[in-house]
Amino acid sequence: MGSRPTPQNLAAAIEQAIGHRPRNISALGGGCIAEVRKIEFERHAPLVAKWAGAAAGPGGGLALEAAMLRHLEEHSRLPVPAVLYADDRLLLIEFIETAGRIDAAAETHAAELIAALHGMTGPSVGFGYDTLIGGLPQPNPPTASWRDFFRDHRLLHMAHAAHHAGRLPARLLARVDTLAGRLERWIAAQSTPSLLHGDLWAGNILVRAGRIAGFIDPAIYYGDAEIELAFATLFDSLSAPFFRRYGELRPLAPGFFEERRDLYNLYPLLVHVRLFGGGYVGQVERTLARFGC
Q1: How many CB atoms are closer than 10 A to CB 188?
Q2: What's the pTM?
Q3: Which end of the chain is more exposed for a tag (fewer CB within 10 A), N or C?
């Protein structure tokens, strides 16, 4: 087991990485795979540090998070924090100033940014490497069929992970398996593979004075844009102003709000079951019942 990160060894790691010694380190919210801190310097712009310290293993999530941020920066117009340094134990990214909440103006701006992101397409569903969501493995094998990908590498993958962690009862796992065998009733086999942020909820959207300042904590892959739009509604993160503007730019197919939104939200619900259990199990059960499983 590695030692618990401390401000002293974090400061030393930052100085070694970028040649500037922090003058102040303060806590920030979030962080599934590492501690998150705001770093202030005498002669350098403030940064955000994600720090796993000596507990990090090879191929850790911080280097992977950096790769995802860089992919979005290089292959889309989505505003994301610049990466200054990354290895398995330390990630240093730009600190983005925020002010205010996600209001109607910010939602409209978010719709324009996300619609443009979804306009970036790939040759197949999946991605060139596996990614993470909430610190959990997210497999992305290139797959011809969107429905097969959603079934095998989202729904069943996370349901079985939650069951193996002791948080999803066997009876509910069996019901997820049943639903997975009936997806052709609601989801087409083929879909245009859009580039997705992958973890689109309010906590990952940074706002400054009615505009989107940045998106953080991506879980990228290419998939059907509807799964991203569904997740944006799960915790009431984005609402009518977002969908009004998004629909003007990329019209939604009939049946999204009536059926497919809840179906796609089984994936982030299962992620939360795997991470936290509790009341999310009941939400999964109610969704399964809604689809006759």
Answers
A1: 12
A2: 0.94
A3: N
